[in-house]
Every structure is written in C-alpha cells, then in structure tokens.
Design brief:
2 copies of one chain form a homodimer.
Chain A lengths: L1 E5 H12 L13 E7 L2 E7 L3 E8 L1 E4 L1 E6 H10 L4 E7 L3 E6 L2 E6 L18 E4 H12 L13 E7 L2 E7 L3 E8 L6 E6 H10 L6 E6 L3 E5 L3 E6 L18 E6 H11 L10 E6 L3 E8 L2 E12 L3 E6 H10 L4 E6 L6 E5 L5 E5 L7
Antiparallel strand pairs in A: 1-5, 1-7, 2-3, 2-6, 3-4, 4-17, 7-8, 8-9, 10-15, 11-12, 11-14, 12-13, 13-25, 15-16, 16-17, 18-21, 18-23, 19-20, 19-22, 20-21, 23-24, 24-25
Helix pairs in contact in A: 1-2, 3-4, 5-6
Chain lengths: 366, 366
C-alpha cells in the first residue's frame, strides 16, 4: 500500500472514525483504524462492534492495499505533522512509513483481514432528515436516557415514524423527553438505538440543512451522510408505550419565561444539594411561582412571574430533572401543565409544538 | 452587619480571595471568607495560613460588622444572583440574609473572631515591578520547581535582588529556570517563596504596566496591588547556589527557530512515551539537527535546520524537559549551548538576555 493525501483531510477523517473506537477493547484489532487505499479513495473505518463509522477521502493511491493501525497513536502523529501532503507506505514485517516534509515515522500495523466486516445494510433510503434537525432532536432527548442498566431498553432512544411524524423518545423512571418533526413519508418504523452511540452520531452531524439518509434493518440503523456512514446496532426488546404515560389532560397551566425560571431553580438548587435529594418546592399562585428549598446549609426563596390558568398548587421536584429539561429547551416562553401535586408535570414550548417533556414530582410526606 | 454592594464587584472580590482558600481544611474557619464591613468599604480575606489574600471593594455600609462565611457556597450563590445590587444583613443565631431582587437566601455564618490574623508586614516599599513582567517571570520559572518534597526548598522559587537585577530561579534535579529583569534599586534580597502560592499570585496579576509593590519580612512576602494584598510565607533554608550550576563556557552553539524545534521534539516524543523515559536523541550536525527516538511503538526521525558554531555532537534528553522549556520561551530564535554529551545544555533567547534555562542530558550507556 502506498498513498499521498492532504494532512487536513486525513486529520478530519481520523477524528470522525475515532468516535467509534472506544480505546481499550478486548479485541486489540478494534483499537485500530482500518485503512484501505483503492481507486483514488482512502476508506477509513473505526468500530466497537456496536457502532461502526466509515468515511472516505480523496487520495493519490500509488499502490492499493489495506492495513489496520493503532487509532490513538496514528491520530496523534498525523495531527502533529506539518500542514503538508503526507505519504504513507507499507513495508515488509508489517511496518508502515509515514513521511511528511522532514518527518519520518515507522510503526507496526495490524492485519486488515482480522478487522470485522461492517454489517450489511440494504441502502434503499427509508427516510431523509436535515442534519441540523436530527442533531437537535438527539440533543433534546438523550439527556433523559436511563443511566443504569436495570432495564437495558431504557438506555436507548426510540426512533419512531408514524403518521408522517418522526418521534425521538427517551425516558428513565423520573422523566420523559419527546421531540417530534414532520416527515413526508408513508413509512412506519419503530426502533431503539443505544443512547451512547447516538450521542457519537450527533457529534458528526453538522448544524445545517444538508440531509442525512437513514436506513433500517432488523438489527441495525445506517446513517448515510455522503462521505461518511454510521452503522449502529439496535437494542432488542419493546420500548415502553410512552403515549400512555403522557397525561392527555391537565387542571392548571403555567406560562413562564424559560430563562427566568431556570435561573431561579438553578439558584434554589444550591440549597437543595445537601442530604435531601435536590428537593425544591414550587408554590404556584395567581401571578407568581414561589420556589423554596431548605437544608442544613440554609434556606432560599425565589419568585418568578407567571400566568396561571386554573387553581393554585403546591408541588415538589428534584431540581436536577427540571434544570435538565429547561437547559435544552430553546423557546423563550414555555408552558407547564399540572394536574395535582402527585401527577407528572408536562413542559412544552409555548409557540412551537415540537417537544414534550414530562417530569415526575416528589411526593412529600405530610 | 448590613451592607449593599454591586454584584459584579462582589463576584470579582470573591474570585480573588478564594484563590487562597484551599477547600477542605483541618480548621473549618479557613474554608470561609472573612468579610468586614466598615467605613464604606468591604474587606474580604481568604487564607490557608501559608497564603493570605485580602481585597477591598466599595459598598454602602448600613451597619458595620464582620463575619466569616463558607467560601464555596457563598461564591456560588453570589455568582448565580441576578446582575443587580445585593444586600447582605446579619441576624441573631449567626445567620445572614442575602437578598437580590426577588431572591432571598438565609445561611449560617461563622464567628469572625476565630479567623486568624494576617501576618504583619511593615509596608516600607522595598521594590516595585510592573504586574505583567512579574506575571511573566513567574510563568517562566514555576514549571521547573520540584514536584516532590524530598528537598522542600526546591518546591519554591528564589526571589533574588542583586546588582540592580531581579532574578527568579527554580530548579529540580533535572533542569533550572532563571528569569531576570533590571530593577532600579540598591537593595539586596534573597528569599524563597512556595511555588504553589506564587502560581496563585500570578493568576491575580494583570498583563499590564500597573505596578505591584513588594515587601519582605524575615518570614513573609507581601505583594501590594492597591486594592488587593497577597501575603505568602517564605520557605526556610538556603536555596542552592544556582550560579555554580550554570556552565559559564561552552564548546558549541546552536541557533534554531524555537517553534520548528518544538514541533520536531513534540512529534518525536510520541515515540518516546513507552518504556524508555521520553528518551530522544539529538544528532547535531553542520546545518541540521536530526532528532530520533525508538521504542516498542516504532521509530521516528525529525530534522530541523540550524546554524552551528563548533563541532558536531550527539546528545540525548528526556523530551519532556526540553518541551517544557521551549513552550514557555517567547522569542522566535533561540540559542542552545553545549559542552559535551554529558554536560547540561543551556537554552537562551537569541536577542533578549532575560532568561536562561538549563537541561541535564540523559547519559547513554555505550
């Protein structure tokens, strides 16, 4: 194998595929990046089996071939080389020479035949979304995936297409996050993608209008971004019927400025940190919401202007769960819907119906 | 005690004095900030005994008084309050109320009488330096202080005034850093300041021409920046006679571009990380320096253009020590002076004689 390529292109390709390389793996070959030089194209692949990322860049191929090389060391070397063309060539004894200007590195490589094959995903495009929108939908739900493995299905995000709407849903035992976007398709899909790998996918997606094509098989999802393909395995099992959890009715509705509420809860949580599980109390009155917290550290009282439709209510929350939700919402005005002090609170944007968040209250012992 | 002051001023004052509060202290009172309200001035003090920082800000004092309050919690609360005037008032039962707009916090405070007194330093100015210069001198030497405590005096930086020159010197067993600036004074001083506290001092110093007044006693040094005073204890004992360590003569002199050399050594060190103590070899030839390293990971060859006066030489170093030195030097062209493969290398700026660095070579077994 022998090829010449631009430093910057190679650095970018390595950064992309490295997102699937988890470092110390029980299979040493998975600590490496697969590199194939063929037909003026360099194909790089990183994989931890659950997640595989492939990307292609242009290169001058002088002799086709393929190798696997330690991802961390190779990445560090290429990043530190001067900003010129890099020449890479294999030699006998499984060694490669990396040359750039007056720098010459000689390293051992691994055998490309030992690298696992990518899962085959039939590329009949199932649907297409702008990258920026998908990136935002992942960001807007992934914080709510379960952190513990007691119910593995909840460590994933539900990808659901139904009635021309794409829904992304994540939930643990305490809160639920739902993001939805219109999608012009007749297809119906329901699949659960590991949250961890979806976070890596969102890092590769750009904040723009360019599209990503998405395909499914029984076991895998493929995100095709043109030069880059991301393949993730799906989680097995049924996701929770989330629609039955979200209350369809409410007794009172609060309209409030998101940032003001977030600031108040953020400050109140300072007093809620010790001992009592981030407990804050909301006293919802006619025109204001009073937020209080008490602990060994001291006490705090915050007040925020609201518009209330319905009867006043007192309700308590773990401040962390409210803060998580408010932090990732981007509308200025939000709606909070309550039914009673022991029923979940639903948080939405006031003007835009592209998300729904649900947070369980903390039941206070009277 | 009762006062009103601007949020931003209070935040800045807390940030300054908090640099002396080390967190968990065997004396609980030292986890707090001392606050005294008197005569339209708020005085804040943080201390860990070794280092004390006092700063003053303007405030509207409605009732004079003094308290000590937990630094971490108080800092977090004040930082998160809205950007308006803050009112702080003490009540019975050792509690204080912090109010700002519609936010009200109630906290316990500690007894100001339990807070240790600042060491008395007679403020006859001994000398004056622009803050930016002192900040730079500290940055340019503190990386070379000893990390282990086997010789406590080497965990400090020597502050020496002699022959109208201020010298800052740090050294461990492997390298030495000397920074010097002209100082128009007849005084003679030699004191060793703990490196850790001097690093905190350098964070408070601004990158500008404003001066800092410096005073010494037998046991303490006082940096007076106007509104802020920093008092550090001195280390006991004699510093090493550093002048006898720095070679006065050399057999060969290398002129080289600093950034190019740094890049080469930085890359070469990638291959030097495993097993063999960052060992890199320098082959100094007529017009080039060839840098090589070999390890189980592979091998590397780098080449940088130089001007050589003297005979060629081969010498080996721990790359980390050379990188540390090159990173903090700011001249484009530097000089490296060598005598033999077992004598220290002296590194200087080509045009500016305000620093001198010394790095011991690694003796290779032939």
């Amino acid at each position: 194998m022998k090829f010449i390529c631009e430093k910057n292109k190679l650095v970018e390709a390595i950064s992309i595929v490295q997102k699937a390389v988890t470092g110390k793996s029980p299979m040493q070959i998975l600590e490496g990046i697969y590199i194939e030089a063929f037909d003026n194209t360099l194909t790089l692949i990183g994989s931890d089996i659950d997640l595989s990322i492939e990307t292609k860049i242009e290169a001058e191929i002088l002799e086709p071939g393929k190798i696997v090389i330690d991802a961390k060391l190779f990445g560090e070397i290429i990043r530190k080389l001067p900003n010129y063309d890099i020449e890479i060539e294999t030699f006998e004894n499984n060694s490669i020479k990396i040359s750039c200007q007056k720098s010459v590195f000689t390293l051992m490589h691994m055998n490309a035949d030992d690298f696992p094959n990518l899962p085959t995903v039939d590329e009949n495009i199932i649907f297409t979304v702008p990258q920026g929108i998908l990136k935002n939908m992942i960001k807007g739900t992934s914080f709510a995936i379960a952190q513990d493995e007691t119910r593995p299905i909840l460590t994933g995000i539900l990808f659901e297409i139904k009635d021309k709407v794409l829904n992304l849903v994540a939930l643990d035992g305490y809160r639920l996050a739902l993001r939805n976007e219109f999608l012009d398709t007749e297809k119906t899909i329901s699949a659960v993608i590991p949250g961890k790998t979806l976070n890596e996918v969102s890092k590769i997606l750009e904040e723009n209008e360019e599209t990503v094509n998405i395909n499914f098989t029984t076991n895998h999802i493929l995100f095709n971004l043109g030069d880059t393909k991301v393949i993730s395995r799906l989680l097995e099992g049924e996701f929770i019927k989330y629609n039955s959890i979200i209350p369809q009715e409410h007794n009172l509705e609060v309209t409030v400025n998101k940032q003001e509420l977030l600031n108040c809860i953020d400050r109140a949580s300072l007093m809620a940190k010790e001992g009592n599980s981030n407990l804050i109390k909301l006293d919802i009155q006619e025109d204001v919401m009073v937020i209080t917290s008490n602990s060994q550290l001291g006490k705090v009282r915050e007040e925020v202007n609201i518009k209330l439709q319905g009867e006043p209510l007192q309700i308590a929350f773990n401040s962390k769960y409210l803060i998580d939700v408010l932090k990732i919402m981007d509308n200025e005005e939000i709606l909070m819907e309550f039914s009673s002090s022991v029923s979940p609170c639903v948080v939405k944007n006031k003007d835009l119906s592209n998300c729904k968040y649900l947070v369980l209250p903390v039941r206070l012992v009277k």
